Amino acid sequence: MNTSKTARKYDRFSKVYDPFESPMERRAFSKYRAKALSLAEGKVLEIGVGTGKNLPYYPQNVEVTGIDFSRGMLEKAEKRRRELGLKNVRLLHMDVQNLEFEEDTFDTIVSTFVFCTVPDPIKGLKEAYRVLKPGGKAIFLEHMKSRSKLLNLLLYMMEPFMRAVLGTSMLRETQNNIEKEGFKVERVENLFFDIVKLIIATKPSGDQDDSEEKPVP
C-alpha cells in the first residue's frame, strides 16, 4: 500500500483513534506497554509514536525521539507530551521507511503495534536496524499471524475492515521479518496467545560471536 495513502487514513482516524482503542487499552494494552517500555535505555527512537500512548511509561532517564508519518497522530502526541510535561521527548514527522538519521545513532528502538501497518515492513525494519547502535536493543510489541488455524480464522475475518480503515494487516509474520533483517532475537513472550508478542532483539556488534545463539524461552 502507498505510504501517503496510509498516512492519510491515520490523519482522518486520529480524531477518534484513542476512544476507538480505549477498551483494549484499559484491559490489556496499557499493561503490555508498561512492561515493554520499562526496558528502554539511553537514546531511544520510537517508531510510529502515534498519539503518544507510550509516553507515560518511559523511564525518566531516557532521551526519546518519536516519529510518525501521520501529522494528525503527531498533533495528538504533542498535546500529550505537553500535558505530561516531558522535556526529554521530541516528536518528528518522518517515515520509518526513510529515516533521516545517521547509522548507529540510537541505543534502543521501540515499536508498539506498528509493523502491522508499515506499507513495506521489510524496508522499515532495514532502516530501524541501520540506525540502531551495534549492541543496541530493539523492543517490539506487535500483533501478528498466529500458528493456530483457528485463531487465524478470526484474524482473516478482521482483515478487510482493518485494511480499509487503517491499512493494517493482522496477518503479517513480523517475528520472522525481524529475524530476516539481521536482528538477533533474545527473548519472545506471548502476551495474548501467540498473536500479541513482546520481542526483545539486539543488533549484533562486530566483536560478538553470533554462532552462540541464546535460548529463547
Short recap of the structure:
The protein has 217 residues and is α/β, with parallel strands linked by helices.
Question: How does this structure look, described?
Answer:
The protein is α/β, with parallel strands linked by helices and 217 residues long. The chain has one domain (3-202): Rossmann fold (3-Layer(aba) Sandwich), CATH 3.40.50.150. It contains six helices and seven strands. The protein has helices at 3-13, 17-37, 71-84, 121-131, 149-166, 174-180; strands at 43-47, 63-68, 89-93, 106-112, 132-143, 184-192, 196-202. A seven-stranded mixed beta sheet has the order 3-2-1-4-5-7-6, with helices on both faces. It is globular. Mean pLDDT is 93; it is low at 208-217.
What is the fold's blueprint, element by element?
Blueprint: H1 3-13, H2 17-37, E1 43-47, E2 63-68, H3 71-84, E3 89-93, E4 106-112, H4 121-131, E5 132-143, H5 149-166, H6 174-180, E6 184-192, E7 196-202
Parallel strand pairs: 1-2, 1-4, 2-3, 4-5
Antiparallel strand pairs: 5-7, 6-7
Number of extended strands: 7
Largest sheet: 7 strands, mixed
Q: What name goes with the CATH superfamily? A: Vaccinia Virus protein VP39
How far apart the termini lie comes to 35 Å
Number of helices: 6
Structural class: alpha/beta
- The helix/strand series, from N terminus to C terminus, equals HHEEHEEHEHHEE
Give the strand line-up of the largest sheet: 3-2-1-4-5-7-6
Strand percentage lies at 15-25%
Report the C-alpha radius of gyration, rounded.
Answer: 16 Å
Q: Any idea how many domains?
A: 1
Unreliable residue stretches = 208-217
CATH architecture: 3-Layer(aba) Sandwich
The percent of residues in helical segments reads 25-40%
CATH level 3 topology: Rossmann fold
InterPro entries: Methyltransf_11, SAM-dependent_MTases_sf, Thiol_S-MT
Keywords: Methyltransferase, Transferase, Ubiquinone
Protein name: Methyltransferase type 11
Domain Methyltransferase type: 45-140
